[in-house]
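Exercise 3.2. Students should predict the tertiary structure of the chain below and write it as structure tokens, then compare their answer with the key that follows.

Predict this chain's 3D structure.
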Amino acid sequence: MSDEWISLVTRKESVLWVSLVCAGGAREYFQRALSWDVAIQRYRYANDTHQISLKDALELRHLIDTASSEEFYSFYERRCEAAIRTLYSVTDEIAIAESARSGEYGGHLQRYFEVAKETMPFLASMVLVESALEAELRRQLSKHLKCDQHDKAVAEVLRDGVFMEKETSLVNEVHSLLEIVELADSASGRRAISELTQGNGSGPLASKLLSLIDDHLSRFGWQQTFAYLHDPASTEQVLNRIHNYLVAGKGYPSVSTLVTRRAARKEKAQAKRQELALPEPISRLLNIAGRLQSLRFRRVDCHFESEVRIRHVFQHAASTLDISREDLVHLTETELLVSLRQGSPVVTQEEILRRRSAFCMTVEGPNIETVAEEREQDKYNAFDFDEELAFPLRGTTAFEGFVRGNACLVGGPVDVSKVSGGNGVLVTPMTTPDLMIGIEKAAAIVTDEGGLLCHAAIISRELQVPCVIGTKYATRALKDGQACTVDARRAVGLVMPQKVNC
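Answer key:
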């Protein structure tokens, strides 16, 4: 890979979603969102990986570093929150508009796409803003503690002194599901879940469970749609997850335990600040860091939750073009709107099918080009590894533990059935909400990518599943079904294959 590019994240996404991400990097959207005179001139999505040019990344970082101050971070937070509120507001207006059900799909979708693009500058800049904030905290902490910026004392404050005031939707979804699991954890409850899973449940308890599941889906079903690719979660899927918790035998944390843990994390953060007598300016920056951690998730969640609210508009538009919704989301924003104006798709069915397998999108100034790619037959183990050099794989421990199990290479929801038997180690580039049924079965989790605020890290801590993130090569170095060891007992987690296949 050329040194001119910086890889951001690898995950399979839809053409429509990536086209909005790319278009939202234009100067006009940075100006509207943040009053910044900047643009992402070169960007690409290839091999399921988002990449930004080094030049654009450095320009963004310089702008952020120059503006860095407590007032700047508060300004950034306010503007991001405002953009999220606007997206929800416009989406709700479209959702209830009578014309959205009577044929004027193009106008509604164009309005939705425009407001969605106005939130995209926050996708591109959030990680850089967090990095600048961390640098400022390190500078102030080192001065207050009279030590080097990379001293252990500074690292402990950044680890223990930051508390996320608003819990993520990922954690709230787990809490909601576990409340239903607790209700069903009795002889009669297990029987009701088993009958409901088979489609023949009845009686007061079954009715109550179904009511709770319906409420759960209305609040969190959108999470698994990810990048417009999938349908919202179904009753059957939630029932299967509940059934897995009740029959897996490895236990689950009670909701009261999770609430207690959260309170303990907050107390620990407050105690760390008091112990070190941190001055008010540093405490305020730590508070901003906690709010930005939550905002990092909401800035993405708002898109997928909004799309579900107006999915009927997408479905009607697909019907108008005589294609499936799954095909529709593999048109770019521009292609979709032009297709609706002329009454037929501007992209052939063959091209759409190829894009559903793999595609490449590139941004060069104002031009965005999309082409289908040939999907590698074997995405994993595409490169030979010298085991003496590659192993043990090293990553960051997100949750501690030690597990011996079998590697289950998971590229998407279609692969989660591999994780079974109680000793499956889920190995994936990165976890997303549509992999939850596999995550909840896994003995351990290993990812190529991710930091301590990624999906895998947060969910593994909630469910107390040993987890090593950011190994870079796990999906290439491990073979499907291979016996392996996950040693997450220290800050640096180790992953080592065993010689004998299972």
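Discussion points: The chain has three domains: 5-151+310-372, 169-253, 387-501. DSSP finds 21 helices and twelve strands in the chain.
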